[in-house]
UniProtKB/TrEMBL annotation:
This is Uncharacterized protein. It comes from the Bacteria. It comes from Singulisphaera sp. Ch08.
Length: 127
């Protein structure tokens, strides 16, 4: 999946910029972006879905498809980690699928399947 996912270690340099963006939206987000279990995944999802322009500050570049796949990967990972801690949340699961439904990109369903399998492998068996 190296061809579509931007490695997390390349994103760490953007954490301060992401903190500034998060503080600017105040209470708009009800999920704790600093939660020790799922906070990083949620923050990465927000980076790719809401503030992809921050990637340029880290001299990272992503196509529309790469933004989509990274958003999907991090939201799926967040949803699984959040579920482990708080139980099933239909709204969060729906949000994962909306990423794929609301795209204007040509989805490669093989890539989506690989990303789904990657998250399952990384996190192990269910909640």
């Amino acid at each position: 999946m190296n061809e579509v996912l931007i490695p997390d270690q390349a994103l760490v340099s953007l954490d301060q910029d992401l903190d500034v963006m998060l503080s600017s939206i105040g209470g708009e987000i009800v999920i704790d972006p600093n939660d020790p279990e799922y906070g990083v995944a949620f923050r990465r999802y927000l980076l790719f879905s809401r503030w992809p322009s921050l990637l340029e500050r880290g001299e990272l570049h992503a196509t529309a498809e790469e933004l989509l796949y990274n958003s999907y990967y991090w939201m799926l990972k967040f949803s699984k980690l959040h579920e482990r801690k708080h139980g099933y949340d239909a709204g969060i699961e729906q949000q994962v699928f909306k990423i794929l439904e609301n795209t204007h990109c040509n989805l490669d369903w093989n890539v989506v399947e690989q990303l789904t399998n990657l998250v399952e492998t990384e996190l192990g068996a269910g909640p």
